[in-house]
Design a protein that fits this description.
Layout: H1 3-10, E1 12-13, H2 31-44, E2 48-49, H3 63-70, E3 82-84, H4 94-103, H5 132-140, E4 147-158, E5 163-175, E6 197-207, E7 215-221, E8 229-234, E9 239-243, E10 272-284, E11 305-319, E12 328-333, E13 340-346, E14 352-364, E15 370-381, E16 386-397, H6 410-413
């Protein structure tokens, strides 16, 4: 067994408890387990974790986080630290809970591991999953309030030189199927969705100067064998270019992220295999105040992360293409939302290459409810000493977005 795998298995939470069939949501901790967490928190709440004391909480941090804190110089930092905060269960919307409870009792996979009736229902299909592919479908089924609009402020940092490149993007995302809050539920009517869209994403660049008014449109379709459509309008050339599917592993605008990495995984599940590795009780950012995040100039890693414990489901993910850019990934999925709190990626030689952490909070959404969605992130390249940090200023969750926003003609219409 490779050493990198042994490190992960060493932090896995051995207890594997399943709630009664169909119950949802399922908290990270209940009963005696919750009492143990609260007792541990009496020692560590509001404590600043640095290289000096991280060994005392090593069992609750991933190897990538531990490596960064113990060796901050690789990210051009004097020190890297985070704060421990109390565990808080998420408040999920009524629609999300009711859709899951109603539809999960009949959820099943066909002989090709496709979700039967994909595109016709909503909610988490397998609240008490038993296989890795069921867990992957749970991740794919969270529509984060059905729509959202955000402004992202990002920085790409070469930690060797300290050079920084900043950016600003205005982003809109709409889920056409799997909807549980915003009418129409659970899907947008076929007459308004003749192309069979599952999810659409539109982005307009506002910085840096050489990318102002560059716009991006990405469409994911319900048909799993149909590749995503990705168009880019480059303002300086006033031309729309369509990207091929084999370009999804290209770096996005000089960051450490490829197109498949967005939101954890942004394309169809059928491209991968999923091996359930167990549970991992780890400190992650589930209620992050972006104003608490800070970093020095030239530092490619956020300080001020507010980490709370969560008992994750862990998947080892391997692409079916043997020449794929990552030899494998580890996904850490939140047990309450099935969103991805972070993932780590290994190169073809099996080395720890990247770590992508997503920091969440709860935001007002449809009908005066709240929806957990990530508002900041960083993706770290351990081999290049490189980091990409960003904050997402959430403008709205669960509000109507005109369907015309996601047509190719909108690429230059929404430009200057």
């Amino acid at each position: 067994m490779k050493k990198s795998v042994m490190v992960v298995i060493g932090i896995l939470f051995s207890a594997q408890c399943f709630a009664s069939e169909g119950s949802f949501p399922v908290p990270s901790y209940e009963g005696e387990d919750l009492q143990k967490v609260r007792l541990w928190e009496k020692t560590w709440n509001n404590k600043k974790i640095t290289a000096e004391n991280v060994d005392q909480v090593k069992d609750f941090v991933h190897e990538g986080v531990y490596k960064a804190i113990k060796d901050p110089g690789i990210f051009r930092a004097k020190d890297i630290w985070f704060e421990v905060v109390p565990y808080r269960p998420y408040t999920l919307s009524k629609g999300f809970i009711e859709a899951t409870q109603k539809n999960s009792v009949s959820s099943r996979l066909d002989d090709k591991d496709m979700l039967v009736g994909y595109g016709t229902s909503s909610g988490i299909p397998f609240p008490q999953p038993k296989t890795g592919i069921e867990m992957a479908w749970n991740f794919d089924s969270n529509t984060r309030g059905d729509s959202h609009h955000e402004i992202q402020f990002g920085t790409v940092v070469d930690c060797k030189s300290g050079f920084e490149r900043t950016s600003e993007q205005h982003r809109w995302e709409l889920f056409w199927i799997g909807r549980y809050d915003v009418p129409p539920v659970p899907v947008i009517e076929k007459e308004k969705n003749p192309r069979g869209i599952a999810r659409s994403f539109f982005q307009r660049m506002a910085a840096p100067a050489d990318f102002i008014d560059t716009t991006i449109l990405e469409i994911k379709y319900i048909e799993p064998k149909r590749g995503e459509d990705l168009w880019v309008y480059t303002a300086m050339f006033r031309r729309i270019r369509r990207y091929a599917n084999n370009q999804r592993t290209d770096s996005i605008d000089g960051t450490d992220m490829i197109y498949d990495d967005q939101d954890g995984w942004y394309t169809h599940l059928i491209h991968n295999t999923y091996d359930y590795k167990g549970r991992a009780d780890l400190l992650v950012a589930r209620h992050q105040d972006p104003e608490k995040l800070e970093k020095a100039e030239g530092q490619g890693y956020w300080n001020g992360i507010q980490r709370e414990r969560a008992n994750h489901w862990v998947l080892e993910v391997k692409n079916k293409d043997k020449n794929y850019i990552y030899s494998r990934q580890l996904w850490y999925l939140d047990p309450e939302t099935w969103q991805m709190n972070f993932k780590v990626m290994y190169n073809r030689q099996g080395q720890l290459w990247k770590m992508y952490e997503l920091f969440y909070d709860e935001f007002p959404s449809y009908g005066g409810q709240t929806t957990p969605i990530f508002n900041s992130e960083h993706i770290i390249d351990f081999l290049r000493n490189h980091g990409s940090t960003s904050i997402r200023n959430i403008q709205s969750v669960g509000k109507d977005i005109p369907l015309t926003q996601f047509q190719t003609q909108a690429l230059n219409v929404k430009s200057y």
